[in-house]
Specification:
Blueprint: E1 7-13, H1 43-51, H2 62-79, E2 82-88, E3 92-98, H3 103-121, E4 136-140, H4 143-175, H5 183-200
Antiparallel strand pairs: 1-3, 1-4, 2-3
Length: 203
């Protein structure tokens, strides 16, 4: 990959979870060039977009995210790409990989293969899909940027794992007869969720 980037930072969202008007901001396909404005919060626009959905939004559960994270390295091997890191969030997936193939084509194959793998265990209704159209493909040219992206993705994955473990502890304690949900554990769970939100805004 002598003439290409060191890696691609590929991100794609789940179906119906980030629509125009979302307070987090979105990018319109007709305004997708450097310097073009981000579409901000607009409750009316978001409601219109939501009414156009053919299926309910897809939110990845802890189990689905663990499965996705476990299989992405195999999908990269299947495609002949070098895997570096991945992290699945409730409404999007991050993957860092290297290849001499075109980035958008790799993103399309990755979304297709991951969706097929998920459907084998969790079938969707006819016509439904796991992912929103498109996504982001960022070219990683510098070692420093590569290491920062990889660290960011691994932090997101670690936050997922910590949140799952904290949820298990809370569930186990709540299921114990005569014992409730202590303030300390409530703070621990909330801390895990806050950590995940912090990582989302790291870049």
């Amino acid at each position: 990959m002598s003439n290409g980037p060191l890696a691609y930072h590929i991100t794609f969202g789940t179906y119906g979870t980030r629509l125009h008007g979302d307070p987090r901001g979105t990018v319109d396909r007709t305004l997708n060039n450097p310097g073009d404005p981000i579409i901000g919060a607009d409750g009316g626009w978001q409601r219109i977009e939501r009414s156009r959905l053919n299926f309910p939004p897809v939110v990845l559960s802890d189990e689905l995210r663990r499965f996705a994270d476990s299989i992405v390295p195999d999908l990269c091997e299947q495609g002949g790409w070098t895997f570096h890191a991945c992290a699945s969030r409730p409404d999007h997936v991050h993957v860092l990989l290297s290849t001499d193939r075109e980035g958008k084509a790799v993103r399309s194959w990755l979304k297709r293969w991951l969706g097929e793998a998920l459907c084998k265990r969790w079938p969707l209704p006819d016509g439904a899909g796991w992912w929103a159209k498109g996504g982001s493909v960022k070219w990683v040219w510098q070692d420093r940027y590569f290491h920062n992206v990889r660290k960011y993705i691994l932090c997101q994955r670690r936050a997922n794992e910590e949140r799952v473990e904290q949820s298990r502890l809370v569930s186990r304690r709540s299921a114990t007869p005569g014992r409730g949900f202590t303030t300390g554990r409530a703070w621990a769970l909330r801390g895990g969720e806050d950590s995940a939100l912090r990582y989302r805004g790291a870049f």
